[in-house]
Every structure is written in structure tokens, then in C-alpha cells.
Amino acid sequence: MHYFCADMHNGDKSILKQRPQFVTLGYHDEFMWNLLADVKANDEVTFVGDCFVGAECPDILRKFSFKKRLVVGNHDFERKLHYRDFDGILDHIEGSWRWPRHPFLVSHFPVHEMALRQRLNIHGHLHEKIIPDTRYINVSMEAAGYRLVSHEEIIDGSYRTFRT
Q1: Distance (Å, rounded) from C-alpha 19 to C-alpha 126?
Q2: What pTM value is reported for the model?
Q3: Assigned domain for 59 exists
């Protein structure tokens, strides 16, 4: 199974302003890390940006045995974290990613519609905001209902953030 998620903001105290349901950063981060607890070793998670902000993230992420891909967001690596901190932890770090088996373009920021070329854009960054276009699929925590989204849900159309 392949999962997608964006905008976890682990270790980012400023996210509490946008997510008042989480009283403390500790509670927020525990909730976010627990979303990964049931992912199996032969599964893969693509983190679609803004997931790892705090310095403790590499050590926590190391505990999970599934395959990990990061499509970098605007808050990843903005503080004291560097790419090298994830060496041996993340299997891939990318700016954007074209999934070879399916017509998906994965990017943290939604891409311009001219760049889609008959692909769907799996993205984050907008949190709860939805682009009114069926080609854009927002996997931000808010848009997804604070859960991981499986590739099967995207392929069969059961997960869409906008429907006509």
C-alpha cells in the first residue's frame, strides 16, 4: 500500500494557532506520529511537504520501518534541520515527483494547470482550502480529515477534495 499525507507540521509550535483542537504541541505531534503506527514495513508513505519541522523529527521517523519519500515543502528544513539529518532515514527526497505507474504529479504546492498534462496533482500546502478542479487532490491533514490517504482511494476516485 502507498499512502500520502501533507502538512503534518511535526515540531512546529506555530501550527497550534491553526489547529486549536490540539492544546499543546506534544499532543499535536503525538497524534500526527500515531497516524503512522499502523503502516506496515512493506508499505510506503509519501510525505507531501511541511511534515518535519522540529529537530526531533529524524529520530522519531527512524523508528518506522516502512519506505519513506519526502516531497519537500516550504517549511521542511527551514529551521535547524538539513537534508543530511535524514540520510539513511528517508528513502527519497524530491522537489516534486511523477508517479510512474499512475498519472500523478506529486508536489507540495499545487502546480499550474498548464503543467498537469493529463495528470492529477496530489498536493498539500493549502491546508483546508480546496481548488475547485477535479484534477487537484489535496492531501493536507485538514483536507483529508487528519488521516493518511491511500493510493487506492485516489485511483478508484473515492478520495477527491473536489467533485463536480
Answers
A1: 14
A2: 0.95
A3: yes
